[in-house]
Description:
Elements: E1 3-4, E2 8-11, E3 18-21, H1 29-32, E4 50-57, H2 59-62, H3 99-106, H4 123-126, H5 140-152, E5 163-169, H6 172-178, H7 182-185, H8 194-209, E6 213-218, H9 225-230, H10 234-243, H11 254-273, E7 283-288, E8 299-301, E9 304-305, H12 319-333, E10 353-354, H13 378-381
Parallel strand pairs: 4-5, 5-6, 6-7
Antiparallel strand pairs: 1-10, 2-3, 8-9
Amino acid sequence: MRWLVSTVLLCSVAYGLKDLGAPNWSCDASVMAKSKKVPTSAHSVRFADIKVIGALGDSLTAANGAGAPPGDPLAVILQYRGLAFQIGGDKSLDEHITVANVLRKFNPNLVGASKGIGSENVWEVAHLNMGVPGAESKDIIGQARALVNTMHSHSEINVKEDWKLVNIFIGANDICVYCEDPYFNSTAPHGKTTFENNIIAAVKILHDNLPRTIVSLTGMFNMRMLRKIDKKKYFCEGLHTFECDCESNQKFTDDDIQGVCFGYMDGEKDIQTTGLFDDKDDFTFVVQPFFNGISDPPYASPGVVDMTFFAPDCFHFSAYGHGNIGMHLWNTIVQPVGFKQTSVNLSDPTVGLHCPSTSCPFFPTTKNSKNCAAHFTLSELD
């Protein structure tokens, strides 16, 4: 495995903001290449085989405020989708790290990356970024239907033949209403939480309607860190009173917030480990758990929160924050299931982008992570 650590901080000409790019990043030619023959199994997909990228989520997926000027919290209402860490495509990878920008190094003709500023229902901006500000886990069910319909309505996408990567990141708004809404305190049949069942329902729609699809879920993060960001910052505290009721509810303690987040993380892992979506060969579901063990926000110096990581509301990610998260998400994606990192140092932007393994060049899944050799096709071995 070859690692390149030339990731640098860049000043964005378009937005005048600090950013994080990976200039001249590349990997060994053997892992950058497409399969000799388009694979039929989700466990034999090389990164260059992925032709379509989509996303479901909330305002963090819509990238609210990512390009907002410092000190302008009103600009957080703007959805800078082209900067979104999972699917943004405004800039090149040299300038800004997103999963879509990394994948375009493998396949320059990737379809679905969002561009510019606007809402989820404007194709020219959102493309296949279905994220909606304020969305809770129940809302990604409708987003999944919208994603399926949008893919079917655009001729540049061959739903039956193209390999697709759908990214999901959800849960922050569930926490923000958890302390007040009994719906989120309920446990559904079979011991699953409402949150877990909502994700299952959304992924089931993708499973039933999108062949040749890999679903990558970015694991829930510990919302307890939000209170560490707020500490002695009255401006941030005031904004969060409106943005996240439960974060400002002192009866909902730090331990309460953390406990619910851990429960959500367990639910996400449960979906993967039960193999619920490994019942057919051309579809799979993988959790990227790098947020799980993080309890501190990024720091500029010991004990001093790095506010350049955040939009002016002290919660959403800035362009730099999206680039940083995009880097860690990609590095987790290329790690085998069962060996994925569950904590990263958000304070260190010099980690750099990692490359897929030369010995197992496929998108890591539950099956090829156990026995990669079994998923090399005859054409791969020629």
